[in-house]
């Protein structure tokens, strides 16, 4: 009778092995579920970045104001018949850039 129990336990273990460690076992399913969640987060970040870039491209294609603003801020350009004034801060401790950031020496 003892042999029957041992054989049944061995069969139970053999049947459980593919469930836990096989090709479609629970451990692999849990691992893949984690990878799927990580990829979803990455996709969401990428979609948000793409939406910002798309809005910027549409703005540059449709409006002149965005191109003018970029030319002024990034390239330092001015319009014709426009007078440019540059205010130099005499305080050497800190200076304020055009973007409003404070630069300390």
Automatic annotation (TrEMBL):
Pfam families: DivIC
Alphabetical UniProt keywords: Cell cycle, Cell division, Cell inner membrane, Cell membrane, Membrane, Transmembrane, Transmembrane helix
GO-annotated biological processes: FtsZ-dependent cytokinesis
InterPro entries: Cell_div_FtsB, FtsL/DivIC
One Gene Ontology CC term in the entry: cell septum
Cytoplasmic side: 1-3
Principal localisation: membrane
Location in the cell: Cell inner membrane
This protein's record includes keyword Translocase: no
Keyword presence, Membrane: yes
Bilayer topology: Single-pass type II membrane protein
Periplasmic-side positions: 22-105
PANTHER family found in the cross-reference section: CELL DIVISION PROTEIN FTSB (PTHR37485)
Function: Essential cell division protein. May link together the upstream cell division proteins, which are predominantly cytoplasmic, with the downstream cell division proteins, which are predominantly periplasmic.
Family: Belongs to the FtsB family.
Subunit record text: Part of a complex composed of FtsB, FtsL and FtsQ.
Record protein name field: Cell division protein FtsB
Taxonomic source organism: Candidatus Nitrotoga fabula
Gene that specifies this protein: ftsB
């Amino acid at each position: 009778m003892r042999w029957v129990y041992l054989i049944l336990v061995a069969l139970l273990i053999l049947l459980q092995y593919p469930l836990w460690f096989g090709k479609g076992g629970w451990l692999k399913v849990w691992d893949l579920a984690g990878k799927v969640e990580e990829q979803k987060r990455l996709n969401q970040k990428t979609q948000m970045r793409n939406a910002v870039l798309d809005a910027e491209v549409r703005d540059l294609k449709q409006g002149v104001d965005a191109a003018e603003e970029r030319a002024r801020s990034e390239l330092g350009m001015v319009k014709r018949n426009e007078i440019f004034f540059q205010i130099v801060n005499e305080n050497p401790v800190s200076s304020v850039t055009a973007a409003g950031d404070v630069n300390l020496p």
